[in-house]
Amino acid sequence: PGILGQISNKKFPESFQFGAATAAYQIEGAWDEDGKGESMWDRFIHEDPDRVKDRQNADIACDSYHKWREDIELLKELGVTLYRFSVSWPRILPNGTPNKINQAGIDHYKTFIKALKEAGIEPIVTLYHWDLPQHLLELGGWLNEQIADYFGEYARIAFKNFGDDVKIWATINEPKSTCLIGYGAGDSPPGLKLVADGVYQCAKVQLLAHAKAYHIYDDEFRAQQGGRISLVLDTTYNEPASDSDADKFGAELETEFNLGWYANPVYIGDWPELMKTRIANRSRQEGYSFSRLPEFTAEQLKYVNGTFDYFGLNMYTGLTAQYTGEFDIGEPNYYLDKGTSTSHGADWTPSTVSWLYSYPVGMRKLLNLVWNKYNPGTIYVTENGWASDGSLNDQGRIDYLQAYLSNLLDAILEDGVNVAGYTTWSLMDNFEWTEGYTQKFGIIHVDFDSPNRTRTFKESGRWYQKVVATRCLIDSCDE
Ligand code: PNW
């Protein structure tokens, strides 16, 4: 099925797990309660509320720190068997270092995880979904390789305390987004505009941090706990804007500079060749005696390569790409290194956020690409979802989810891709970073005007509930 194609009339395999996803900073609130430390997002927004579109903040958000029992009831009502959420680093280690452990934070997550398991819901726990402890930011944040060691310390504490109950770990969520937005565009913390070199250094440090956590799990916990661990990467599926060889190259560049940048070191062994040669060439012409893309030492390469037990994939949308040719040498910049310009297909349905268009067949194509290129053994689609204005009548989200899930199912049944589970973004409306509460991704509505943060199923929530129960995307599937 293409964009306007047929929805599959087959059933999802019994082993396939449906779920929903959230992240600590976007739902928890309680930003300074019970000993929690300050995260870089707390500071970034408190310091200047104008950094958020509606001048709101996440001090309370969905209040899930207090209302977690209700969240579990919602998950039960949906009937899902997977819940992907993140643990807040500064809630466990207020200044990010193991020097001070906040027992109240540990107890909170322990209780929550136990209750989830009792409800028959398996946790996928993300260790880092963007809320770096402020202290570690001041130490240099993701530009300082030492942060990788601190991440390892934090991961060890999480494995030790939660690992008996958590069997699927995700180290870092979307390193690409953190590096490009926080260290390149400067629109999220730390607000740095280091698009020439900071973005590359950030990527290296995040990969080292991921690998550190992986090895600690492997060496110290895997034998007893028997779980799986990987990282979560986000990417678009990129189509050439035309049939020309130049545009085909443009799509390849787009994919290598976004997905390959992080996936190649972990799944294959080093930065993509295309990135290495292009950035080295441009660097040389720009007066550097070395490449602005930092090299891994031989030891680091070995350390990072193979640090996965599955592929965590966040997939929302597609792009059309063109190769722009070589220009602006002398102005070091990731985007010029990449050498593409991107847009979207003329017939792709827009959402309420500028970057998100519906391109369902991209899901099937991307799953095949990841499966064939990276040989991950298992893929979890850890995020996929639609932005809308927040009304309960959200047919647009149903159309999107139905078409994407249909393509996901085709990838499983027709193409033989092992997709083990899917956690839709998001369980409920939440704090959408610098978009504040203006963008709603939830299949469940949250009333941010009520102190109760009342949760109400949207039509998409009811629709998803039915899909989960019947394993079928239409009224009745082939038996
Ligand atoms: C995700 N893309 O980021 C984040 O993980 C969530 O925290 C966030 O709420 C959600 O998107 C919705 O914005 C994305 O390239 C990063 O298509 C990149 C893309 C999509 C989502």
TrEMBL record:
Residue ranges of the TM segments: none
Primary enzyme class: hydrolase
One Pfam family named in its UniProt record: Glyco_hydro_1
SUPFAM superfamilies: (Trans)glycosidases (SSF51445)
InterPro entries: GH (IPR017853), GH_1_N_CS (IPR033132), Glyco_hydro_1 (IPR001360)
GO biological process: carbohydrate catabolic process
Entry keywords, A to Z: Glycosidase, Hydrolase, Signal
Taxonomic lineage from the root: Eukaryota, Metazoa, Ecdysozoa, Arthropoda, Hexapoda
GO molecular function: beta-glucosidase activity; galactosylceramidase activity
EC code(s) of this entry: 3.2.1.21, 3.2.1.46
Protein name in UniProt: Cytosolic beta-glucosidase
This protein's record includes keyword Hydrolase: yes
Catalytic reactions on record: beta-D-glucosyl-(1<->1)-N-octadecanoylsphing-4-enine + H2O = N-octadecanoylsphing-4-enine + D-glucose; a beta-D-xylosyl-(1<->1')-N-acylsphing-4-enine + cholesterol = cholesteryl 3-beta-D-xyloside + an N-acylsphing-4-enine; beta-D-glucosyl-(1<->1)-sphing-4-enine + H2O = sphing-4-enine + D-glucose; beta-D-galactosyl-(1<->1')-N-octadecanoylsphing-4-enine + H2O = N-octadecanoylsphing-4-enine + D-galactose
UniProt family annotation: Belongs to the glycosyl hydrolase 1 family. Klotho subfamily.
